UniProtKB/TrEMBL annotation:
Keyword Signal: no
Family, as annotated: Belongs to the short-chain dehydrogenases/reductases (SDR) family.
InterPro entries hit by this protein: NAD(P)-bd_dom_sf (IPR036291), SDR_fam (IPR002347)
SUPFAM superfamilies listed in its UniProt record: NAD(P)-binding Rossmann-fold domains
Protein name per its UniProtKB record: 3-ketoacyl-ACP reductase
Top-level taxon of the source organism: Bacteria
Annotated organism of origin: Virgisporangium ochraceum
Length: 259
C-alpha cells in the first residue's frame, strides 16, 4: 500500500532548533527521521512527542561529519519509509572555545568545517541523487533546507572558523538550488539569528544585554526554535513554489542596517 504521509529528515533533531523543526513538521503531518549523534534520550523524547502528534518519529543515529554514517542514515530513511520529501540540514556545532582569530587552532577549523560544512554539503549531494530519481517513490516536489546562520555574513573574530563554515553553507544552498531546479527540487537557506538553545546557553547574559538594552535586533526578543520551525513548515507546505536559492532570515530583523 502506498504511504500517504510525507517524510522529512531533520539532522540534529534531538535538541534546540532541530527539535523545534521536527515538531513543527510533525504538526504539519510529516513523519520525521530524528537524527542525532550523542543524546539518544533527547532523540527518543522527540520521537515520543511526534507520536503524540499522530505521526511517526524514527530515530536514527549518525555523525553527519562521517561519510559512512551519512550513507547509513540515507539508506535508513529509504529502507524505513521508501521516500524522502524534505531534507533539513540543521545539525551543527559551535567551536569548543571561542578563540581570537589570531590564535585559533587548525583542529577547531577542521572540526567546524567537518560538521558544519562538509557534512551537510555531502549529505545534500547524497540525498539529491536519490531525489532526482524520485519518479519511482512518488514524491511530488522534494525540497532541501539548509539552516545556516547570521554568521554566514557577520564577522565574529572570536569564532572565525564557525563563520567561514556558515558562509560556505550559504554558497552550498545556492549551488544545489541552481543544480536541482531543473529536477523540480527547490532549495532554501534559512538563516536564524540568536535563538534560545543549548548552543547559546554559555553566552545568554551577554546576548540578553545586547537584545534588551542595546537594540541588537529590531524585534527585541530571543528567537525560539519554533520560529525556525514555522519557516521550515512554510517551505515544506509549498508556500514558496517559485523561489529557490532563497535566503529566509529568521532573525528578528538583525540583518537590517538602521541609522
Ligand atoms: P544545539 O542546541 O547545540 O543542538 C545541536 C543539534 O545538532 C543536536 O541535536 C546535536 O545532537 C546535533 N549534532 C551536533 N553534531 C552533530 C553531528 N556531528 N552529527 C549529527 N548531529 C549532530 O544547537 P542549535 O542552537 O539548535 O543549532 C542548530 C543549528 O542552527 C546549527 O547548525 C547552528 O549552527 C544553527 N544556528 C543556531 C543559532 C542559535 O542561536 N542557536 C543561530 C544560528 C544558527 P546531540 O543531541 O546528539 O548532541
Amino acid at each position: 500500500m502506498e504511504r500517504q504521509r510525507p517524510v522529512a529528515l531533520v539532522t540534529g533533531a534531538s535538541r534546540g532548533i532541530g527539535r523545534g523543526v521536527a515538531l513543527a513538521l510533525g504538526g504539519a503531518g510529516y513523519d520525521v527521521v530524528v537524527n542525532y549523534v550523542r543524546d539518544a534520550d533527547a532523540a527518543g523524547k522527540v520521537s515520543a512527542s511526534l507520536a503524540e502528534l499522530g505521526v511517526r518519529g524514527h530515530v536514527s543515529r549518525a555523525d553527519i561529519s562521517v561519510a559512512a554514517d551519512r550513507e547509513r542514515l540515507v539508506a535508513d530513511v529509504y529502507d524505513t519509509f521508501g521516500r524522502l520529501d524534505l531534507l533539513v540540514n540543521n545539525a551543527g556545532v559551535g567551536p569548543k572555545v571561542r578563540a581570537d582569530i589570531l590564535e585559533a587552532s587548525e583542529e577547531s577549523f577542521d572540526h567546524m568545517i567537518g560538521v558544519n560544512l562538509r557534512g551537510p554539503y555531502f549529505l545534500t549531494q547524497l540525498v539529491a541523487n536519490r531525489m532526482v530519481v524520485r519518479d519511482r517513490s512518488g514524491v511530488p516536489a522534494p525540497k532541501i533546507v539548509i539552516i545556516s546562520s547570521i554568521s554566514a555574513y557577520t564577522a565574529s573574530a572570536n569564532r572565525g572558523d564557525y563563520c567561514v563554515a556558515k558562509a560556505g553553507l550559504a554558497m552550498t544552498a545556492k549551488l544545489f538550488a541552481a543544480r536541482l531546479a531543473g529536477h523540480g527540487i527547490n532549495v532554501y537557506e534559512i538563516r536564524p539569528g540568536i535563538i534560545e538553545t543549548d548552543m547559546t546557553g554559555p553566552v545568554r547574559d551577554r546576548y540578553d544585554d545586547l537584545i534588551h538594552n542595546k537594540g541588537l535586533t529590531p524585534i527585541a526578543r530571543w528567537g525560539v526554535p519554533e520560529d525556525v520551525g514555522r519557516a521550515v513548515v512554510a517551505v515544506a507546505t509549498d508556500l514558496l513554489p517559485f523561489s529557490t536559492g532563497q535566503v529566509i532570515d529568521v532573525d528578528g530583523g538583525f540583518h537590517l542596517r538602521t541609522l
